[in-house]
Amino acid sequence: MRHSRATEVSTVKKLVSPDQQGKIAGLAVVVMAAGLGKRMRSKQAKVLHPVSGQPMVLYSVGLGLRVAGDRVAVVVGYQADLVRQVIGRATSGKSGDFPVAIVEQREQLGTGHAVLQSRPLFAVGKRGAPSRYLILNGDTPLLQEKTVRELLRVHEAERATVTILTAVLEDASGYGRVVRANSAERGVSRIVEDRDANAEVQAIREINVGTYVVDGEFLFSALEKLDPSNAQGEYYLTEIVHLAEHSGRPVAAVVLDNPDEGLGVNTRRQLAEAEQVVRQQIRDRWLDAGVTMIDPASTWIDAAVTIGRDTVLYPNVTLEGTTVIGEDCVLRSSTRLTDCTVGNGVEILDHCVLADSHIEDGAHLGPFAHLRPGVVVRKKAKVGNFVEMKKTDLGEGSKANHLSYLGDTKIGKGVNIGAGTITCNYDGVRKFQTVIGDGVFLGSDTQLIAPVTVGAGAIVAAGTTVTEDVPADALVIGRVPQVNRPGWAARRRALQVGVNRETLNVKPKTKSTGLTPHVSRLTKKRPLVSKGRQVEKRTRG
Ligand code: UD1
Ligand code: MG
Question: What is the mean pLDDT of residues 296-325?
Answer without folding.
Answer: 98
